[in-house]
C-alpha cells in the first residue's frame, strides 16, 4: 500500500502559501478597483479553502472526535415525554397499518 502522507504534507503547505499569495493579490486588486464587498467575500472564501486544507491534514483525528461525540454508547435510549406515550404508540400503529396496504 502506498503512503501518500508525506506528499500531502508537502503539497498542502505549498497550496496554502499559493492561496495566501492569491488572497493578497485579490486584496490589492479589490482596493484598486474599489470593489470592497466583493474583495472581502473573495478573500474570506480563500481563507475558508485554507482552513479546509488545514483540516484535511487532521481528518482522522477530527473524524474520531465527531464519532465519539455523536455515537456515545453510554447515552441511553431516547424516550417520548411521559404523558405522550399513548399518542406515540397510536401514531406508530397507524403508520404501520397504512404501510401494510403496500405490502402484499
From TrEMBL:
<keyword id="KW-0472">Membrane</keyword>
<keyword id="KW-1133">Transmembrane helix</keyword>
<feature type="transmembrane region" description="Helical">
    <location>
        <begin position="39"/>
        <end position="57"/>
    </location>
</feature>
<feature type="transmembrane region" description="Helical">
    <location>
        <begin position="12"/>
        <end position="32"/>
    </location>
</feature>
<protein>
    <submittedName>
        <fullName>Uncharacterized protein</fullName>
    </submittedName>
</protein>
<keyword id="KW-0812">Transmembrane</keyword>
Amino acid at each position: 500500500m502506498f503512503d501518500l502522507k508525506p506528499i500531502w504534507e508537502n503539497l498542502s503547505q505549498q497550496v496554502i502559501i499559493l492561496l495566501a499569495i492569491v488572497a493578497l493579490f485579490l486584496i490589492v486588486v479589490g482596493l484598486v478597483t474599489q470593489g470592497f464587498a466583493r474583495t472581502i467575500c473573495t478573500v474570506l472564501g480563500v481563507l475558508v479553502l485554507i482552513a479546509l486544507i488545514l483540516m484535511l491534514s487532521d481528518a482522522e483525528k477530527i473524524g474520531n472526535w465527531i464519532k465519539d461525540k455523536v455515537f456515545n454508547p453510554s447515552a441511553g435510549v431516547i424516550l417520548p415525554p411521559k404523558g405522550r406515550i399513548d399518542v406515540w404508540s397510536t401514531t406508530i400503529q397507524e403508520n404501520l397499518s397504512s404501510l401494510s396496504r403496500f405490502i402484499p
